[in-house]
Each structure stands twice: as C-alpha cells, then as structure tokens.
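4.2 Preliminary Data

To establish feasibility before requesting continued support, the project team ran the inverse folding procedure on a target of 172 residues. The structure was first converted into the token representation described in Section 3, and no sequence information of any kind was made available to the design step. The complete token record follows.
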C-alpha cells in the first residue's frame, strides 16, 4: 500500500507431513480487530522479536517487556470514554517518524494492528497508534481518540527499542 513490507503476527502454523511449515495463520491489520488469515509459508519471511508491550488502560500505564522483564514503564494518555482504546491482542505494524517532532504525534509513532471501535470514518479506518504528544499535561488522563500517548522522551526510547512485529497486549 505505501511501499513498505506488510507485517503480520503469526498465531499458528500448519506443517507438512515432513514437519516443515506449510502455512501460517497470521493476525492481519484490518477490521474487525483480531482478524486472521492463512498465508503460504513460502510467501513470508519470519523473524523473532523478544519484546512485548503491555498497556493497562485504566491505570494509564505502558510497560515494555524484554525477555520477560519490564525494561521501561511510562504513564500514558489512553482513549477518552467516547473514543476508547480497544482492548485485546495486537502487534506493531509500522514505525513512523513524523515530519514535525513538536506536532501532535511527537517525535515518533508506532502503528498497531488495532482499530478504534467508534472512529470508523477516519483516514485508514481509525487505526490506533502509540505516539508522543504536544500536550504533555494530558499524560495520565483518558483524553485521546483511542491512541496511546507517551511523554516524548519515553516515546523516543520506546521507538528505539521496539521493532515492527512486537506484540501489544491492551488490557482494560
């Protein structure tokens, strides 16, 4: 779509009788959240990630976990009551550096496979991102359109440590 590779999260494997991968069930970044499809093994390239992002919406907290240990914690600004952050299992689909580091997305953004449950007429269908902010006073409050906002300094660190494909678990 935009010239970049499409990233999927693998959720299951079908093997040949010789125990070689035949196809993978992958989570795809489309509505409804959590949708999966089967793709032939020869059509994908696999890579492993050792990171995971866990978001606690009510507690307004994000944790970056690497090899089972929390390596970064941050307060966040999750979705407002009328534009909530969806819960579930997602993954990082893309890594973006906005043109204006002082703009609404801050110095960096991570696209996820999640979509807003209410903002369906937004560009690209209302995807949920993890990004910095030009409103640092909002951190700790449920004020976004469903995205996860972090303080810019911590967003830079998260961006540096998280590859595309990283699982994202969003809990209530």
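Position-by-position output of the design step:
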């Amino acid at each position: 779509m935009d010239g970049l590779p499409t990233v999927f999260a693998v959720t299951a494997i079908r093997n040949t009788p010789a125990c070689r991968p035949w196809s993978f069930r992958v989570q795809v970044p489309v509505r409804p959240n959590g949708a999966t499809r089967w793709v032939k093994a020869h059509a994908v390239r696999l890579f492993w990630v050792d990171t995971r992002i866990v978001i606690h919406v009510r507690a307004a907290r994000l944790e970056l976990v690497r090899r089972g240990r929390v390596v970064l914690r941050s307060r966040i600004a999750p979705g407002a009551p009328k534009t909530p952050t969806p819960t579930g299992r997602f993954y990082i689909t893309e890594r973006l550096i906005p043109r204006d580091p002082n703009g609404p997305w801050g110095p960096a953004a991570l696209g996820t496979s999640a979509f807003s449950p209410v903002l369906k007429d937004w560009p690209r269908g209302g995807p949920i991102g993890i990004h910095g902010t030009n409103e640092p006073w909002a951190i700790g409050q449920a004020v976004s359109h469903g995205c996860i906002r972090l303080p810019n300094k911590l967003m830079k660190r998260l961006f540096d440590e998280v590859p595309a494909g990283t699982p994202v678990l969003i809990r209530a």
